[in-house]
Design goal:
transmembrane; membrane; transmembrane helix
């Protein structure tokens, strides 16, 4: 279990850093080409049209707002059904969601770096709070939630199923 957690933390950190650097370099290159390559063929027609506003794509879809609460409900269902297959599937999805969200947060960090360096602007962090919450839920679920550990005791399982099923709509409403 400890190696699994260490490997996942390393993968999340690597994914975040990799996408932050890749985004930073891509947008920095675009900004430099637009500023300095106006006389060159093809490059002269480029524009850095609102890449700062492109962050709205991450926050505007609502996808991340759904990830955490739906994962909580899916966990309640899997725990109620006593399915090892569903347990394994949820662990994989939790890890995949954590990696995807880490990459998205890396995109935000890369955008912030370019905006700060080239335009002296900051980004508002408030719209990213639901993404961070979804990231935390997915990471915790992917790393630590092992439904098979809670199946031995029926009262514990019933309480946990109820708590997860109740937490899902409450979390959805809060985001």
């Amino acid at each position: 279990m400890q190696k699994d957690v260490a490997d996942m933390v390393k993968a999340i950190a690597s994914m975040f850093a990799f996408f932050a650097v890749a985004t930073f370099l891509s947008l920095l290159g675009l900004d430099l080409l637009v500023r300095n390559g106006g006389g060159l063929p093809v490059i002269g027609g480029l524009s850095a049209h609102g890449y700062a506003e492109a962050l709205g794509v991450l926050t505007g879809t609502g996808l991340y707002r759904l990830v955490g609460p739906v994962f909580l409900m899916a966990s309640a269902i899997a725990l109620a059904l006593r399915s090892a297959y569903l347990d394994h599937m949820l662990q994989l999805i939790g890890k995949a969601a954590a990696l995807l969200i880490a990459a998205s947060l890396g995109l935000v960090a890369g955008h912030w770096g370019v905006l700060r360096l080239m335009q002296g602007r900051d980004i508002a962090l408030d719209p990213f709070v639901p993404i961070v919450i979804a990231f935390a839920l997915a990471t915790i679920a992917g790393l630590f939630f092992r439904p098979e550990n809670y199946r031995a005791s029926t009262p514990v399982r019933v309480v946990l199923v109820g708590a997860l099923a109740l937490a899902a709509p409450i979390t959805l409403a809060m985001l």
